[in-house]
Amino acid sequence: MDYISCCEALFDFIDRTPTARPVQAVAEDLVAAGFDEVTAGPLDQTARGFTRAGGFLCAWRRGQADGFRLVSSHSDAPALRLKDRADLGTDPVHRLNVAPYGGAIWSSWMDRPLRVAGEVYLAGEDPFKPDRRLVDSGRAVCTTANLCIHMNGELRTGYTFKLQKDLQPLVTGSGAEGFVADFLTGWGLDPAQVLGYELDLLPAERGTFVSPDKRLMSVPRLDNGAMVYASLQAFLAAGAGAQTQVLVIFDHEEVGSGSATGAAALRLRDILEDLHQAFDTPWRDALAASFMVSADQAHGNHPNYPEKMDPGNAPALNGGPVVKCAANQSYATDGATAVVFENLCRQAGVPVQRFYLHSDLRGGATLGPILAQSLPMPVVDVGNALLAMHAPREVGGCQDQVWMQDALQAFYES
């Protein structure tokens, strides 16, 4: 696929997954491709299937040999989450009470049109299993707004934004019961029947190309929607391999992964052990025969700030997939797993780069080191180079998206 068509499809995918959890869209694509959802019972009886819970999804295509070819990614992204009793009033323009989800460049979230999407909960037949409804406004419904420059001169010289004050979005049209009730009614729900909600405010704009040759893109939630999409497309396109091919998507990476649907839980280990029941071999042998690619976006070389990058390992946009390396094991990559992934890229005709953080800076965490603790198999952390990571719109190289999908497909088929 050419990079323009590939990225237009990526824009569509991200636009139809406005919440921080695109698991529903992934599940729909898997069903369309002939995969069966398993909601109860043993997993090893299903050759092509998937299971999900909240913002977690795991899909598999069973192989004939023991072990796994596994690609992991995460689905969540920074957002402004509505608190309970979110409408703070102040007619005629209402303020919305929000909490920051994840660590964003919050100053860049000012003056942004925002859409609202997420889940609402109604009573179910089982009191421990509420009826979950996915909802989405489908358009901008509120906005953040700066104080004008004449009233805050510090905006010119450096202003510290206060999340509880500056980041409160503004909205009009709320009735007596408030903004949330208005939207529940608009979604065909009776506010009196809604027990609770988990609603995020996210950038409403669609992804777009931002260079004459369409080789750069500016898109909300490239971290990590682009890796979810790349791994899904690679998984669907891959031919059957000798080993079981696994696609897994985790929630809550941006807030530490410490949840029942995050990478720190043992949910993936339980699934893989269940799938392993089809083979009469020791579990430790299956792990030893496996390999995991942890796909989460990487930092790209910003032309305006070259001093922030390692002088010898500064990945370029449109330079190919990035192998993320760290001496302190903040990435799970080691010398051997880096070479394995680089060789697969070369065999697929895909250029590949390496990233090391500047030694005077402290980087973030990702999935690989967390997963390696519960699943001691070889792991490599990879991603595509981005600029403006955790801004409301992130900048990436369009050709990189094609190359990452090609590299992950080659990995699945290896």
Automatic annotation (TrEMBL):
<keyword id="KW-0862">Zinc</keyword>
<dbReference type="GO" id="GO:0004177">
    <property type="term" value="F:aminopeptidase activity"/>
</dbReference>
<dbReference type="InterPro" id="IPR023358">
    <property type="entry name" value="Peptidase_M18_dom2"/>
</dbReference>
<keyword id="KW-0479">Metal-binding</keyword>
<dbReference type="Pfam" id="PF02127">
    <property type="entry name" value="Peptidase_M18"/>
</dbReference>
<keyword id="KW-0482">Metalloprotease</keyword>
<dbReference type="InterPro" id="IPR001948">
    <property type="entry name" value="Peptidase_M18"/>
</dbReference>
<keyword id="KW-0031">Aminopeptidase</keyword>
<keyword id="KW-0378">Hydrolase</keyword>
<comment type="similarity">
    <text>Belongs to the peptidase M18 family.</text>
</comment>
<protein>
    <recommendedName>
        <fullName>M18 family aminopeptidase</fullName>
        <ecNumber>3.4.11.-</ecNumber>
    </recommendedName>
</protein>
<keyword id="KW-0645">Protease</keyword>
